[in-house]
UniProtKB/TrEMBL annotation:
<feature type="transmembrane region" description="Helical">
    <location>
        <begin position="55"/>
        <end position="76"/>
    </location>
</feature>
<keyword id="KW-1133">Transmembrane helix</keyword>
<dbReference type="Pfam" id="PF11779">
    <property type="entry name" value="SPT_ssu-like"/>
</dbReference>
<dbReference type="InterPro" id="IPR024512">
    <property type="entry name" value="Ser_palmitoyltrfase_ssu-like"/>
</dbReference>
<dbReference type="GO" id="GO:0005789">
    <property type="term" value="C:endoplasmic reticulum membrane"/>
</dbReference>
<keyword id="KW-0812">Transmembrane</keyword>
<keyword id="KW-0472">Membrane</keyword>
<feature type="region of interest" description="Disordered">
    <location>
        <begin position="1"/>
        <end position="25"/>
    </location>
</feature>
<keyword id="KW-0256">Endoplasmic reticulum</keyword>
<protein>
    <submittedName>
        <fullName>Uncharacterized protein</fullName>
    </submittedName>
</protein>
């Protein structure tokens, strides 16, 4: 019976998969950013995607977020004006003057005009 012995190399190659990117950093700022990254990757299961899939998914999220913000800042002020007009119509049954709303809310002065502090 012959025995064959395996020799162990002096320096082992790095373990695969390499988990250096998921190790907790030492600095406080690094830990903060690392936690945000880990939360983001675990929420959207980015750890299971390949790099090109991650880039594509983050790009889609960024474009949708920019479109949402554009819609809020560009169209929301006009929509609020339209909603105010509709509310006045539903409350008083006609397209009323804005002073009716101020009177109903009790924000007018003694002479029926708006107070200077609220202009």
């Amino acid at each position: 019976m012959s025995s064959s012995s395996a020799t162990v190399p002096a320096k082992l190659p790095p373990a695969k998969p390499d988990h250096r990117s998921t190790r907790r950093p030492k600095s406080a700022l690094g830990v903060f950013l690392w936690r945000r990254r880990m939360w983001f990757e675990s929420t959207f299961v980015l750890s299971m995607l390949e790099p090109w899939e991650k880039i594509m998914l983050v790009t889609i999220f960024a474009v949708l977020f920019i479109l949402l913000l554009t819609g809020l800042f560009k169209y929301m002020p006009h929509h609020l004006v339209v909603m105010r007009r509709r509310a006045m119509y539903y409350l008083w049954g006609q397209e009323g003057d804005a002073r009716l709303l101020w009177q109903w809310l009790g924000l007018t002065g003694e002479n029926g005009l708006q107070r200077k502090s609220e202009l």
